[in-house]
Write a structure and sequence with these properties.
With 597 residues, the protein is an alpha+beta fold. Helices cover 25% and strands 21% of the residues.
Length: 597
Amino acid sequence: SFIKDDDNNTTTTNGNQYKNNANNSSNILEVMEARLQAVEGTSSLAMAQLMNNISVVASSNKDLQVNLDNLKNTIATSHLSYDLIQAQLQTSEKNVQDAMETTLKQSEAKTLLEVKKQQTACRLSIEYESAPSSGNTLDTYKGPTCIPYTVCTKDEYEEVSGTLTSDRKCSSVTECANGMYRVALATRYSNTVCAKHKQCKDHEVEIQPPTNVSDTLCASLQKTRCDLGKGGIQTIAIGDKDVDVYCTPDGRDLGGDGTSKEKAGKSCRTIRKFHKSSTDGTYWTFMDDRSNPIPVYCDMNACGNDYSWYGDRTKDYENCGGWTLLLKALGANGCWGGGHVFHEKYGCGYFSRYNLKNLRYGFAYGSNSDISNENAMSSAYKRQSFTDVMFRGISDNARHAPRHPKRRYTSLAWRHTNSYKSVQNVVFNCQEVQDGTLIWPTHHLEPKVFSGRHENEVSRNLIRGDTYHALGYGINWQGSKPSQHYRITYDLDQQRFGFFMHDAGDCANEHSIVGCNFGWNGHSRNVIGYSAGQRNPTRPGGEIHHHMTSWGLGGGYCDANEANDLSYSWNGHYWGRGNHETQARHTALFVRDIYEE
């Protein structure tokens, strides 16, 4: 390449320039040759890579060919499977069609059979089957034999209704015979109802004669209630029976002699006093509810504190007998102690101060209309009113000889000033009723000298002496020395008989008795019984003068709360000896009300 010099340089200068340009061209050529060689090398590598790629593509084409062949084989196989499926589908369609045709034929046959059965069935309420149908297919089925039901005439009634397989039974309508009247007319389905004409009783009068359609109408000539202003035994009608009852002058009915439910007396007391009963045993009494008499056990001979009553008292209707049994509590001679002390029937301590179920709430149970040896409570405990209370032995093996064969049991009895609704009512309300006084024979109460076993002693001395020995001779003790034990204080003003009794000892910390809580304690407390007042009595000198400070039913000595003799049903405190030998034999609780008259 030549460069033109616009400034007209010299020829020398141009020659140098030319030379330089030639050198430059040679250099450029060399560079180009080098580049060409590089390109040739690169092309060789590219060509080799291209050949390699062609080889890979060729290999891929080969695999593709294999896959293509496999696909062709699969398609061929699929054509075979399709043909097979098509054949199977055609077979299934034929089977379904055949089954549907078979089912349709069977259904048609069954329908036709049902139609045939309905067409040959007996007409409901008109015919009955005398012979059943037979056959199970349309070709073999034979209908039942049908016969029309018998039709009852106007003089007949349908005694037995017809069924699907039997005829109805018709019977002639009955005509009521002589001496009978028609209670109900015959109907299509029932006969005439007849009844005998009533015959008026001896105490009735006929006020309307009977007819063929009505009964005799009788009126009672017997009164049904007591006459006012006329006391004594009167005959009144109770139900359909004539009963001799005792009536008070103000017209109150005190009941019969108690020998049956209809002849129930108001109480053992009214039966004894007004009907002159003298046999111990079971009687019917109605107590607080004339419509609800029950059998109870009555002691018709005990006078109460019987050791002080001499001779035959069978006819002493005013003072002796008439006692109603309320409960029986086993004593130490045959009860269960230890782990069974609170056993309902045989436990020694079932009626201890922990017994709320019976003593507080009055739930009756057991054999309570006899004097069998077992724990039991009568419903009379909740129903019988009382003024007098008696503890009476029910064991024959008493410690003392009886004063009379009919009064062979020991007894301790006292009287309260007022009449109370029931023992249960007093206990339930936690009433401290403590005004009881011991019941003595009449001669004890007369202010004169009595000629007899206490000759030349006035009545107060008799009372003091018998009071002192009241528990010793009135309770059938388990211990063997009643002559030196169980005496109560001479101080008549200190004695207490009644409900919720206690002495003034300080060994008991639990104040509760059958759920009633009081502010006092004591060595011994009880629901019903005796105590020596509200303080410890002065202790006389000498062992023989020891005496009881409290004793009774439903108690417990000190903190008795275990299955031991501290919580026996009959328990007490013997001053100087704890509760040693204070256990009684089997004993029962009786009451009576002297105001039931």
